[in-house]
Amino acid sequence: MTDQAPPDKVQLPDVNGTAALAIVESLMLALNDRDVLPEREIMGVLHDAITAHENELTAKGGDAPLSKEVVVLIKKIIASGNSVRRK
Questions:
Q1: Number of helices and strands in the chain (H, E)
Q2: Per the domain annotation, does 71 fall within a domain?
Q3: Whole-prediction pTM value?
Q4: Considering its fold, how many domains does the chain have in total?
Q5: Dihedral sign from CA coordinates of 12, 17, 23, 26
Q6: What are the tens digits of pLDDT across the range 27-57?
Q7: Any residues with CB less than 8 A from the CB of 74 and at least 6 apart, and which?
Q8: CA angle 22, 25, 27 (to 5 degrees)
């Protein structure tokens, strides 16, 4: 028996992770739009997340592929400017 999806089922990427990212992104934008959380604080949250995963990489001698990819993704989000709406 194989773990492959039946031919009529499309193998999707991490749906849970994608949904979580979309929800958090929407929350951060809403908090910023309503002046609850300023841009600098949102950027601080993102940088804290990067630091947490970089620390994981350091603790595991660079052998933490998920943390490495998380760092790359968060840095791309910051670089794209989509983490906050520009007013």
A1: 3, 0
A2: yes
A3: 0.77
A4: 1
A5: negative
A6: 999 999 999 999 999 999 999 999 999 999 9
A7: 46, 49, 50, 53
A8: 110
